[in-house]
Design a protein that fits this description.
Structural class: alpha+beta
Helix content: 40-55%
Number of domains: 1
CATH topology: Arc Repressor Mutant, subunit A
Number of helices: 4
Largest sheet: 3 strands, antiparallel
Distance between the termini: 38 Å
Length: about 90
């Protein structure tokens, strides 16, 4: 979430929408995001959705595939900062 917030603009609300959809659908791969669903369910307009997706993609948090007249296919690259590996105790 901190990385999405740092991306600025509408990245955080769009990111929250994506993470919500991922959790609700139990998705492990791509999510289908339509402009209509973003607007009707989350109140995110078409322009804000497009800009948010660009910012999230630029931040390396998602990848997108867009088809003409189809849902935008989104893959969430990371769910957050990676946890550090535990240190081995000194010998």
């Amino acid at each position: 979430m901190a990385l999405a917030n740092a991306a600025g603009g509408s990245a955080l609300p769009v990111g929250l929408c994506l993470w919500y959809l991922k959790g609700m659908n139990g998705a492990t791969g791509e999510l289908g995001v339509t402009r209509k669903r973003a607007k009707d369910t989350f109140g995110i307009g078409e322009r804000a959705l497009s800009r948010g997706l660009v910012r999230l993609e630029s931040a390396g948090l998602i990848t997108t595939t867009r088809g003409k007249g189809k849902a935008i296919r989104v893959t969430i690259v990371t769910d957050g900062p990676t946890k550090p590996k535990p240190q081995e105790p000194p010998l």
